[in-house]
Amino acid sequence: MAAPSDGQASVTIPKPTTDSIDRFKRVVGADDRASLRPMFGNLAAFANGYMFAGLFGDSVFVRADAETDAALTAAGGGPFAPMPGRPMKGYVMLPAAWATDDERLAGAIATSLEYTMAMPPKPPKARKVKAG
Predict the structure, then answer these.
(1) Predicted TM-score (pTM) of this structure
(2) Which CATH number belongs to the domain containing residue 23 in this structure?
(3) Residue 45 within a domain
(4) Residue in 75, 34, 30 with CA at minimum distance from that of residue 54
(5) What is the spatial distance between Cα 103 and Cα 109, in angstroms, rounded to a whole number?
(6) Domain span at 50
(7) Chain segment 77-115, per-residue pLDDT in tens
(8) Is there a domain that residue 30 lies in?
(9) Nearest to 92 by CA among 71, 117, 106, 110
(10) How many domains does the chain have?
(11) Which residue of 47, 59, 92, 131 is 20 to 30 Å from 72, comparing CA positions?
């Protein structure tokens, strides 16, 4: 987040409702290959070392290939840009109504998880050794 004194506007991160968090946990938690952890002040799902879905306020974003991205965008989704004007490549917001439609939400998350699992595993970050 940029400090107001540096000439850039600060960014307000939307917060999800308890219902959105519970729904996301229920849908993602149905697959033991996924884990949940905080991201962007919200909740995100990870598998194979990569983030594959998450909440951004009450909206949901997923990792998607170009074909899925185009289909989701045509259905009413759009770019995922946690910083205005800087969309994250490879991620797309689901159409707003899908965030509360368990069937569509589960389908989109399952597609994203399968796409992510087909990627080579992300190597773990090297641990920093403290001098001392």
Answers:
(1) 0.85
(2) 3.30.1460.30
(3) yes
(4) 34
(5) 10
(6) 13-117
(7) 999 998 888 999 999 999 999 999 999 999 999 999 999
(8) yes
(9) 71
(10) 1
(11) 47
